[in-house]
Amino acid sequence: MSVFFCNFVPEIEILSLMQTFIGNIEGRLDEKGRIFVPAGYRKILAEAESKRIVMRRDTDNECLMFYPEEVWNEKVEQLRQTLDEWDPEDQLILMQFMADAEYLEMDGQGRILLQKKNLETIGAQQDVLFVGMLNRFAVWAPETFAAKRLSQTELAARLRAKMKRTGDK
């Protein structure tokens, strides 16, 4: 029996590929504001051994962002390193960023409870759309996401421009 090892992909890259949220998945809120986290996303969270999820309103879009706790902690550490704790403006940025976040835990059935104020912020009534974003995922009102989507031509042009910039480095 022969064994083939792939030496050209570092182990860290393989691990990060295993924890990638992709796709867009429709969901429906129940009368209490609970939603089932898609099974594929729950599997990724379990593999990452995430006990909690951190949810925060996005700063630029009308959606909610969900982070495995470990990813959230890394993001907060990156932010903390860029801020001066004695600068009043930096303090306000940090307070506002953290104030829009909350810890969520999935129940035994894989549901999370979303507060009414957060659902109103994104304009979600009953239907929502989960959108994978590599190490995190977003929840949108489906019609809001549809309105924000780029045309296929615009997406292709922007991807080419971004990829050319990274290829030049």
Give keywords.
169 residues; disordered N terminus; two-stranded antiparallel sheet; six-stranded antiparallel β-sheet; 8 strands
Would you kindly provide a written description of the structure presented here, covering whatever features stand out?
The chain is an alpha+beta fold. 43% of the residues lie in helices and 22% in strands. It contains seven helices and eight strands, in the order αββαββααββαββαα. It has helices at 11-18, 39-47, 69-82, 88-99, 116-122, 142-148, 152-167; strands at residues 24-28, 34-36, 53-57, 63-68, 101-104, 111-113, 127-133, 136-140. It starts with 10 loop residues before the first helix and ends with a helix. The model is unreliable at 1-17 (pLDDT under 50).
Note the topology.
Elements: H1 11-18, E1 24-28, E2 34-36, H2 39-47, E3 53-57, E4 63-68, H3 69-82, H4 88-99, E5 101-104, E6 111-113, H5 116-122, E7 127-133, E8 136-140, H6 142-148, H7 152-167
Antiparallel strand pairs: 1-7, 2-6, 3-4, 3-5, 4-8, 7-8
